[in-house]
Design brief:
With 115 residues, the chain is mainly α. The protein has three helices and no strands. The chain is 72% helix and 0% strand. The radius of gyration is 20 Å and the shape is elongated.
């Protein structure tokens, strides 16, 4: 049991450190594309580590639940996709006052192009 408690404590410290570093990066980085990187890494690594610690503690002490696993799966799927969409919006808005080109005729989801 001591080893499990030590592992849970280590995961909690790792998760707290990633979350703290990510929030500091969100506040201190100056450009939006730099600022985007900090919270996406903090959410996936920090919150994922905290949820993993909760799962290990729950299974070790007989209070097992799969809610943490579902939250972790949802987080790992949605965080990179939302970061990608935020980056694409930033690239489109960075163009200045230019008119956006029409989407390409091919079946492509990327609409950013330099003409």
């Amino acid at each position: 049991m001591y080893l499990i408690e030590l592992l849970v404590a280590a995961l909690l410290m790792i998760g707290a450190a990633f979350t703290l570093i990510g929030s500091y990066g969100l506040l201190k980085l100056d450009q939006p594309m730099k600022r985007l990187h900090a919270p996406t890494k903090a959410s996936t690594l920090g919150v994922g580590s905290l949820l993993l610690a909760s799962m290990i503690h729950g299974f070790a002490f007989g209070e097992a639940s799969l809610h943490e696993l579902l939250v972790m799966a949802f987080l790992f799927v949605t965080a990179p996709i939302s970061g990608n969409f935020i980056a694409k919006v930033h690239l489109h808005r960075q163009r200045g006052g230019k008119e956006l080109p029409p989407p390409p005729a091919e079946d492509s989801w990327a609409t950013y192009s330099e003409n």
